[in-house]
Specification:
about 230 residues; mainly beta; four-stranded mixed beta sheet; four-stranded antiparallel beta sheet; 1 helix
Length: about 230
């Protein structure tokens, strides 16, 4: 029986070839992991700071809204490049960096609010939007507490007393809730007996909503609505 014995040179050659292939594969895999995907996202802007001047929004030193927004005003969706962004605000006299940088994902939609705390420190709060299709007799709603002047957090309930959100603090956002279209929503400041109602006719079937609460005191807060699709 003849037995072929591989030469040391051939063994070394094969080993070297395998090593090169493995290194190339590892390099490609590493490049894939570290690759930054650049695309477009969309953002809707709202000035939610009561008493503020009209403002412009900047991301990475580029102004993104076409005209300054006064309190309670919102923009249409604006296309932006994806990736990490540094947020700045122009109040008409100075451009200042504010807290609220964000990593925007391609194809996603966002809503961003400019708010200020009791000390007047500004911040941009950015939330990912759910614009998925829903049944024609349902409304999808989320809630955001944007009032620094309330003495306590908020409870959100439906007509009949069903509690949706318990103790929603300043700058917090709730989950989305699917409710029957035309259902009224109550907003109460915890421990005060203050309750305000958003009528059911404000909520149409097949639409998504963000309800944001602002105000200067427990007795003087407002319920603001953003309607999507």
């Amino acid at each position: 029986m003849n037995m072929k014995i591989a030469s040391p040179f051939r063994i070394t050659y094969i080993s070297l070839f395998c090593l090169v292939v493995f290194a190339a594969f590892s390099s490609c895999k590493k490049d894939s992991i570290n690759q930054v995907i650049i695309g477009e996202a969309r953002i809707k802007l709202i000035n939610a700071s009561q008493g503020s001047s009209s403002i412009d929004f900047y991301l990475n030193d580029s102004k993104i809204n076409s005209s300054a927004l006064g309190y309670g005003e919102e923009s249409e969706y604006i296309k932006i490049t994806s990736g990490n962004k540094i947020a700045k605000i122009n109040n008409g006299t100075t451009i200042a960096e504010v807290a609220g940088g964000y990593n925007f994902v391609p194809t996603f939609s966002y809503t961003a609010f400019f708010v200020e705390d009791k000390a007047g420190k500004g911040e941009i709060l950015t939330f990912e939007d759910n614009l998925g299709a829903i049944e024609s007799d349902k409304s999808r709603i989320r809630f955001i507490n944007l009032s620094p002047n309330l003495t306590n957090s908020l409870n959100i309930s439906l007509t009949g007393g069903q509690l949706l959100v318990n103790d929603l603090a300043f700058k917090e956002v709730s989950s989305y809730f699917m409710v029957q279209a035309g259902t009224s929503v109550g907003v109460a400041v915890v421990g005060t007996g203050v309750l305000k109602i958003e009528p059911g006719n404000e909520f149409e079937g097949g639409k998504n909503y963000t309800i944001w609460i602002s105000g200067t005191s427990n007795a003087n807060f407002s319920i603001n609505k953003i309607t999507y699709n």
